[in-house]
Amino acid sequence: MQSEFGAVLKAWRQKRRLSQLELGLDANVSARHISFLETGRSRPSREMVLQLCEELAVPLPDRNQLLTAAGLAPAYQKRQLGAADMQPAEAAMSWMLQRHDPFPAIAMDRHWQILHLNGAATRLLAGMGVGQGDSLIECFLNSPVIQQSIGNLSEVAFHTRARLRTESAHLGGILFSMMRPIDFHV
C-alpha cells in the first residue's frame, strides 16, 4: 500500500521527469531505497525528505507538505512581508527600488501581484490604472490601455508566456494547467 509521502514523492519525481535511479544517484541513495520510499516499505528521515526535496527543487510550501506526509513537522514558516522578522528583507527591497529611480522598478510576488513600486513605476502605471495590489497578469490580459501602451506587445506576450511556463514547471506544473491561455489582442 502506497503511503501519502510515497505518492507525493512519486508525483514530484515524475514532474521533474526523473527515474528512481536518477533521483537516487542525485540524492546519494539507491534506486531501491527510492522505490521503498514511494511504496511505503520504508519511512524517510527528516534529512532524507529535505535531501530529496532539494534534489527535486521542490518549492518550500510543498516541502512542508512532503514533511507532513512523512509524519514529520514542517520546516518552513510562511511569513508576511510586513512581519517583524521580515523587516530586513523589506528594507533591502525598498532600498533597491529607490536606487532604481529614475527607472521604473516593481516588486511582485510569485502570483505576479504588485507588492511595491518605486516612484517612476508608480507614475508610469498610474496613468494606466495599475497600482499596488494589482496582478500584472490580469492587467496584461484585461486592460486595453496597457495592451495599447506596449509597442512590442507580441514580444512581451511571448516572453510572459515563457516566464509563466518556467514558473509553473518549478511549482510542479499546477499554475500553468489552471490558467486559461494567455491571449493578448495584438
Description:
By secondary structure, the protein is mostly helical. The protein folds into two domains: 4-69, 434 Repressor (Amino-terminal Domain) (Orthogonal Bundle); 85-178, no CATH class. The protein is 58% helix and 4% strand. Helix 1 (4-15) runs antiparallel to helix 5 and helix 2 crosses helix 3 (31-39).
> What integer value in Å does the Rg equal?
21 Å
The main pleated sheet reads as: 2 strands, antiparallel
Give the count of structural domains. 2
What structural category do the secondary elements indicate?
mainly alpha
Number of helical segments? 11
Which overall shape is indicated by the principal axes computed on the Cα atoms?
elongated
Strand tally, please?
Answer: 2
N-to-C span: 52 Å
Summarize, please.
The chain has 11 helices and 2 strands. It has 186 residues and is mostly helical.
Structural descriptors:
mainly alpha; 434 Repressor (Amino-terminal Domain); 2 strands; 186 residues; two-stranded antiparallel ribbon; 11 helices
SSE blueprint:
Blueprint: H1 4-15, H2 20-27, H3 31-39, H4 46-56, H5 60-69, H6 87-100, E1 106-108, E2 114-117, H7 119-126, H8 136-142, H9 144-149, H10 153-170, H11 174-178
Helix pairs in contact: 1-3, 1-5, 2-3
